[in-house]
Amino acid sequence: MKPATLKTAAALLTLAALLPFSVDAETPEEKGLAIAKEAKARNVGWGDSEASMTMTLRNKAGRETIRKVRSKSLEVQDDGDKGLSIFDEPRDVKGTAFLSFTHIKGNDDQWLYLPALKRVKRISSSNKSGPWMGSEFANEDLTSFEIEKYSYKFLREDEIDGDKVFVSELYPEYKNSGYSKSVSWIDQDHYRVRKIEYFDKQGRLLKVMNFSDFKQYLDKYWRAHKQVMTNEQTGKVTTIDWGEYKFNVGLTDKDFNKSSLKRAK
Amino acid sequence: MANADNTHDNSNTVKFARMVVNNKWTVLFLSLLLSFLATFGASLLEIKTDYRVFFSKDNPQMLAFEDIQDTYDKADNVMFVLTPKDGNVFSKQTLKTIQWATEEGWKTPYVTRVDSITNYQHTWVSPDDEDYMLVGALLCIPNKTADMDSECEHDGVTEEMIDGLNDQQIKDLSEILLNEPQILNRMINPDKTVTAINVTVQPPGDPDIEGLEGEAKAEMQTKVMTAVPEITAFARDLKQRIMDRDPNIEVRMTGVIMMNNAFAETGMNDMLTLTPLMLFIVIPLALFLMLRSIPGTISSVFVIILSITAAMGGAGWLGIFLTGPIFSVPTIVATMAVADSVHLLVTFLQNKRRGMAKDEAMVEAIRINMMPIFLTSVTTIIGFLTMNFSEVPPLRDMGNTVAVGVAWAFFLSVTFLPALMMILPVKSKAREQGESKAMDKLADFVITKRKILLPAMAALSIAIIAFLPKNDLNDEFVKYFDETIDFRVDSDYTADNLTGLYVMLYSIQTGKQDGIHESEFLDTIESFSSFAAQQPEVLHVQSYGDVMKRLNKSMNGDKQDCYNLPKQSLDVGCNAVLNEPDEEGVELDTRIRELTAQYTLMYETSLPRGMDLNNQLNGDKSSTRMQLSLKNISSIEVIALEEKFAQWFKDNASTLEISASSPAIMFSHVGQRNIYSMIQGTAIALVLISFILGIALRSWRLGLLSLIPNIIPMAVAFGIWGMFKGQVGMGLSVVMGMTLGIVVDDTVHFLSKYLRARREKGMDQEEAVRYAFHTVGMALTVTTIVLVLGFLVLGMSHYVMNAEMGIMTAITLAAALIIDFLLLPPLLMLFKKSKKTKPVESVGEKA
């Protein structure tokens, strides 16, 4: 927990820099970056976690499809996190497991274990903009947040549900993003992302994600238990409901490699 | 008694006429004010650039189509068809242009997907690691094969990368495309000379307005209205930029959006070119020739213009949208309004030339004409109102709008017109009565030759009507536009050289989650796909089976033998693990289904935005959409094909739920239903009009007899159409109802004069016929000429629906006049033969 303490201290300093009297001294770009850094800082040091989620896909005609996935995550310092998702539903893909090493720079590494074939397949992952399991979430919406992936611009202060928020624009710095920019609403009390608007390459609003049902874990880390992604262009909606998170369940690198994929059930 | 009635009616009419004449300024002012009020509604008019307006909200094919659109991605598109002049799609320069244009396509407003040969997402395995499946755009294939960590995506392909391709690589890429059933005959032709870039868009539509309020609603309405013009403007600009960038490329544009735009634009251009032609050349000229009076011509033109603006305003008040058929309203109303003015003014000017005082001449003109003008307006309105029987909302709207215009023309003809004529100076000079002599000669001819005329005319009519069955119902939406319209030309070119704009969408539903992964289901769509592909009308079949075959191959180390459905490929050793018994004892079929589902999942996870499977699979993978591209075939053929396929599914896959629709299917069905509902509507109108005639003429017998000159012209016109053209679409189906109301006018005028001669003047049949010819013969001839000319102007429309309607109406009206002159009189003389000896007829008493 030592690095985390250090980071918290750094964060406090950053926060001090954000105090109103110093705002004028910063450019919007600097302020946007500072907010991102603070948000990241407040989410550092959680180690590893486990949670299950239910994903509900609703099309324009109102018909719904349910997917159930268990997900394991391992925090990686100075690079993207590692993730393992195991599908429980739909039944025909039960046991299919998806392993990803996200990277700050370059392609992520992705593998998929197909239980019917009893084989691990590596898949090309230059594609970040594609939908995740046919949902409105793109692959890039679900990978871990890393400061270096974006450049920032603070826009204004605002309110969401009575909470004060910072509103900033984020411009993807990695290749093959499906977005020209996104706008995020981060609350000032806890630096939690409350809402993100995604704009397509033509600058038109594409999707809106709302976060809610926040819970705090380990007295520090906030997790939204509901994420609703609305595609403003097609009218399709995907909702993710997260179950209880478990932290410090003892996951290590060994749980996130190709052979662990086959074992994951 | 009859006379008493007459004088009673007339005395009211005279009172009214005097009121108008004495208060000319007030009448003028009030009628203008009312016209302006009516016209103000035009500010509420909105142009509709969506072909879906041709379908009522409960149209079953439309509902099926909307459901397919909502379940999968919408299929609205702009298709750019690129033809390199050097005949080679696979030159580096052309590939660069396609790649560039594909990425530019992503900037189209409301774009959700762009497909071209350069961003086609191929699957293959890395040569080093057969468990590394690569998914990527065509032009990324050489790059990714060389470098496993390549970040190449379709939008990242550079000119240098294309320049770096060697001949062998280009050849390999072209082989990949020509061997891919999803691409061949859809995105590229087998000769590699024509290729397409298909931009799928999702413009907002009326359903998006539902539930919105206030400002948000107004904003969305504007968006709905401007979306198609906005997309079209972008597409046209892109077309120009492609050609500027690469003069070697010919660019054509087709697709649903271009069709929507053509509907709106062609109609609009019609209104802008044909209406002025009507208003400022044809009508003034015709009026002047008939009236020989400049003030009369000017006043009539005002009546016509005000009737048109009031009609369009009325459409606005009624909440009618501007659509193709509505743009024909000005021409039709102008034509109809001429007759009212002419009848009144001819009498007025005649009276004046005979030396009557101006006031008296007008009062007398109103007295004589009020009833016939009213009656003909009513029958005409009934005729146009029959369009409400139509299945097609814009045709209903057109009928109602014209009805408003005709009503308004009547109103103005008896208020505004006389008032204005009283204000304008009217010179009168004596004029020779040459025309009536011609008519007298015609009357003599008809009377003396009646014994020959009757059978001859009857035989001729029957001979022509015999061609009526040669008409086929056909509603091909590409052919709604003539060959001067780019959309038509480009769509025909595309159908001839690449793929069809007419598609059939089949949503094949298993009803259970992941049902599409059952091998039995895949077998079914596979055999349907090959059955469909065997049909000569079918150019291309898009089937998920083809995707699965390619996936199966890539998942088995790209072994060509494995290019098959997972189950079938087991025999040649693909997916070998399935040949081993399962330790948990799961059945083979289940294991194949799971494998297939997992392949889909894997592929789905690898596709970039806008290239996903949502256009072929629904969310829970219980159904798939197949798209069949057809040649440009007639709607009868479309329906026949649809039935053939329905039968196939009944025989081969009775447990699946099939829903089939598409614009082509929708237009085919609505055309069919429309004609039957219009026939029904016309029949009702015929009965109603005969009834009205019976009352007006105070003779049931004549009311019945009038059916003959009212029906035969329609039948003859359709017979002539069958001889020369033989294709009946939506536009023609309304001609019957519409012409009925006009044809009746001629009959009314002729019969009423005939009856007046018999009843009031005690003439015998021959004399009465002569009298009818003498009094109304010339007026009928002249008004028919105006009507025929007016509808021929409409016949010049580039919007074939309106043009055919115009030409057909012109034919019907010409036929009606000939029949009124050559067949009706011999008939009249025939039926009364037994009573020839009696000088005074008893028809009047029958009323």
Please tell me about this protein's structure.
- The complex is a heterodimer of chains A (265) and B (847).
- Helix content of chain A is 17%, strand content 44%.
- Chain A is built from five helices and 14 strands.
- Chain A has helices at 2-18, 20-23, 28-41, 139-142, 258-263; strands at residues 48-58, 64-74, 82-89, 97-101, 109-114, 119-123, 150-160, 163-172, 179-187, 193-200, 205-217, 221-231, 237-242, 246-247.
- In chain A, strand 7 and strand 8 form a beta hairpin.
- Chain A is globular, with a radius of gyration of 19 Å.
- With 847 residues, chain B is an alpha+beta fold.
- Chain B has a four-stranded antiparallel sheet with strand order 3-6-2-7. Chain B has a four-stranded antiparallel sheet with strand order 11-12-10-13.
- In chain B, strand 4 and strand 5 (132-137) form a beta hairpin.
- In chain B, helix 11 packs antiparallel against helix 15.
- Chain B starts with a helix and ends with a helix.
- Classes of the chains: A alpha+beta (265), B alpha+beta (847).
- The interface between A and B is large, with 51 and 60 residues.
- Strand 6 (119-123) of chain A pairs parallel with strand 5 of chain B.
